[in-house]
Structures are given as structure tokens and as C-alpha cells.
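Students often ask why inverse folding is considered easier than folding. One informal answer: many sequences map to the same fold, so there is more than one right answer. In these notes we will look at a single instance of the problem. The structure comes first.
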């Protein structure tokens, strides 16, 4: 019996208000401090973007499906034939903090391929949240993405 496609969830409390956390995820001036190295623009509903990780010579095409300011971002991303859906929920809390919950679904392929994609996504989104927390709370750039696989850096 085939595996039901996995759904990945990663979450982390960021000790900043939801509007500030949300802004960091839609504005590449901030996002490049903790995730991708380049974006073709801001995250806005209906836009098609390209996100790049230059150190790896990698990129992803991004279709922005929905943006609810300070609350939610929904995208489809990946490369032709291998896209998945990602949603960020920014849950404002009474104490001025934000719980960010990222859900990734729509993995395709064999059971083993879907599991491998899900495990990779869980690790990637966990690192993303840790980097965002350090940057937004303390102004520290941890370089988690670049340091994850230093031997895989793209040679120009």
C-alpha cells in the first residue's frame, strides 16, 4: 500500500510582534540575512519570484498564492515537476511574541523519495526559523544555510 504523502510542520516562537516577523519574511532585504541570498522581489500575492542560494548555485521558482498581512503567506515553490506547497502562519500572541508555523505539503515521487524530501524540508525549515529568530531577536546572522553544507558550495 503506497504511503500517504507526508506533511511537514516546523514551528518556533519568535519574541517579536507578528507584523515585524511577517515583514522580515516578505522583504528580501531582511530575508537574505537568514535564508536565501537573492530574490527577484518582495513576496506579494500573485507574484512569480525566483529565490536563489548563490553559494550552492541553486534556485527555486516561487508562485505566491496568498498573502494575509501579518498573518499568512502561501506559496507553491520548486522547479518544474517538483513543486510543493508551503504556508507560513504568523500567530500573534498576547505577550507580543509570534509563533511561526511552517507547513510544507505536496511531495511527489516514490515513497522513499517523498520521505527523503520531507526529511530535507523539515531540516531546512527548522534552520530557517532558527536563523530568523537569531536575526530578529538579536541582530545575529548565524549563516545556517551557507554553513549547512560548506563542501557543496558552488565554485564560480
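Output (designed amino acids):
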Amino acid at each position: 500500500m503506497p504511503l500517504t504523502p507526508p506533511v511537514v510542520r516546523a514551528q518556533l516562537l519568535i519574541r517579536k510582534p507578528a507584523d515585524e516577523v511577517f515583514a522580515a519574511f516578505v522583504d528580501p532585504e531582511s530575508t537574505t540575512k537568514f535564508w536565501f541570498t537573492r530574490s527577484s522581489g518582495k513576496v506579494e500575492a500573485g507574484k512569480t519570484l525566483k529565490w536563489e542560494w548563490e553559494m550552492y548555485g541553486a534556485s527555486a521558482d516561487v508562485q505566491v498564492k496568498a498573502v494575509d498581512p501579518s498573518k499568512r503567506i502561501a506559496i507553491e515553490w520548486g522547479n518544474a515537476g517538483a513543486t510543493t506547497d508551503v504556508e507560513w502562519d504568523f500567530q500573534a500572541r498576547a505577550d507580543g511574541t509570534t509563533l511561526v508555523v511552517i507547513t510544507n505539503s505536496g511531495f511527489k515521487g516514490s515513497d522513499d523519495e517523498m520521505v527523503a524530501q520531507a526529511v530535507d524540508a523539515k531540516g531546512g525549515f527548522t534552520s530557517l526559523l532558527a536563523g530568523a529568530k537569531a536575526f530578529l531577536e538579536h541582530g545575529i546572522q548565524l549563516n545556517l544555510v551557507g554553513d549547512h553544507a560548506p563542501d557543496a558550495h558552488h565554485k564560480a
